Amino acid sequence: MSTTTPEIVMYSSAWCPYCRAARALLDRKGVSYTVLDVDAEPALWSELEERTGRDTVPQIFIGTQHVGGYDDMAALDRAGGLDPLLFPKSTP
């Protein structure tokens, strides 16, 4: 049996308090994630808007699922829906 953890990607900015809160939540969950820094790579803003229709950070993807920003992810966590995305069941 193996467990595959999905790739987690967050569009983020160093100055954004919601980005820091999102990173802290993911850190508490003990998962690794990739941060795409929109400050360091301004072209990521266009990519972000194309992928999400939004122009704010953070924007978080778990696997292929866009979970939204920090407020969206925190609400998903409170509703019990975040852990199943982060820690999918084992497959034979």
TrEMBL record:
Keyword Disulfide bond annotated: yes
Keywords for this protein: Cytoplasm, Disulfide bond, Electron transport, Redox-active center, Transport
Any Gene Ontology CC annotation: cytoplasm
Residue ranges of every copy of the Glutaredoxin domain listed in the record: 8-67
Biological process (GO), any one: cellular response to oxidative stress
Xref: InterPro entries: GLR_AS (IPR011767), Glutaredoxin (IPR002109), Glutaredoxin_subgr (IPR014025), GRX_bact (IPR011900), Thioredoxin-like_sf (IPR036249)
Any GO molecular function: glutathione disulfide oxidoreductase activity
Function description: Has a glutathione-disulfide oxidoreductase activity in the presence of NADPH and glutathione reductase. Reduces low molecular weight disulfides and proteins.
Similarity section: Belongs to the glutaredoxin family.
NCBIfam families per record: GRX_bact
Protein name: Glutaredoxin
Organism: Plasticicumulans acidivorans
